[in-house]
Amino acid sequence: MLTLEGAEIAQGGFRLTAELSVPEGARVAVMGPSGAGKSTLLGAIAGFLPLTRGRILWQGQRIDTLAPAARPLSILFQDHNLFPHLSLFDNVALGLDPSLRLDPAQRQAVLTALDETGLSGLEDRKPAQLSGGQIGRAGLARVLLRARPLILLDEPFAALGPALKRQMLALVGRIAGETGATLLMITHDPEDARLLSDQILVVAEGQASPPAPTGALLEDPPPALAAYLGT
Ligand SMILES: Nc1ncnc2c1ncn2[C@@H]1O[C@H](COP(=O)(O)OP(=O)(O)OP(=O)(O)O)[C@@H](O)[C@H]1O
């Protein structure tokens, strides 16, 4: 279980509070108006932004005091955190060891992750020589390889076309299913939420609300979500 207890994050004049829990293995879509604080929330969980108040716990242990790399999670952004000068193999391998000094078992694990995400044969390519979908897969290969229990997605597939985005979401679903990971995914698209999430966490009016079941929330959205969805 991921728990935010009396959490507050401040950024310039912006302030977000969160009092909520996400059960282990849940798939949660994070939705809300632009500028409402969705990325701020994920950034605080990942450790890029400090809390000004409260605590974050994973399985009852405090994680908000840990450095980002020591937290039990992987985060994926729209740029997929790929380094342009590194090969696909090395970009994925960074998920295991930032110094890239891999032993044979680790090298094999990288190859397996590339294989499972449909990237075999492209190991030596640089990111600039990959398509948008392949870059999306590379980010997911790294997430798969890291095998952390919490996966945070900050709109990594927003720039992809609908068919490719559905493919990526299916792959995310498969990875989460295989690893039992808990998923928090920012999206502006209710269709993404329906496809992948069982719960929606609404971020609006300075507050991140506890997750509620996807179907019920989309059918009868609270005013802030209804205004945002245009329903
Ligand atoms: N570095 C910063 N310094 C000051 N304020 C910031 C900074 N980054 C973001 N903000 C503000 O914090 C608020 C929340 O931003 P955030 O990016 O979390 O929103 P979001 O819900 O993810 O938006 P979007 O859907 O547009 O990506 C916004 O009002 C934004 O202007």
From TrEMBL:
<keyword id="KW-1278">Translocase</keyword>
<protein>
    <submittedName>
        <fullName>Thiamine ABC transporter ATP-binding protein</fullName>
    </submittedName>
</protein>
<keyword id="KW-0997">Cell inner membrane</keyword>
<dbReference type="InterPro" id="IPR027417">
    <property type="entry name" value="P-loop_NTPase"/>
</dbReference>
<keyword id="KW-0067">ATP-binding</keyword>
<feature type="domain" description="ABC transporter">
    <location>
        <begin position="2"/>
        <end position="230"/>
    </location>
</feature>
<dbReference type="GO" id="GO:0005524">
    <property type="term" value="F:ATP binding"/>
</dbReference>
<keyword id="KW-0547">Nucleotide-binding</keyword>
<keyword id="KW-0813">Transport</keyword>
<dbReference type="InterPro" id="IPR003593">
    <property type="entry name" value="AAA+_ATPase"/>
</dbReference>
<dbReference type="InterPro" id="IPR050093">
    <property type="entry name" value="ABC_SmlMolc_Importer"/>
</dbReference>
<keyword id="KW-1003">Cell membrane</keyword>
<dbReference type="GO" id="GO:0016887">
    <property type="term" value="F:ATP hydrolysis activity"/>
</dbReference>
<keyword id="KW-0472">Membrane</keyword>
<dbReference type="InterPro" id="IPR003439">
    <property type="entry name" value="ABC_transporter-like_ATP-bd"/>
</dbReference>
<dbReference type="Pfam" id="PF00005">
    <property type="entry name" value="ABC_tran"/>
</dbReference>
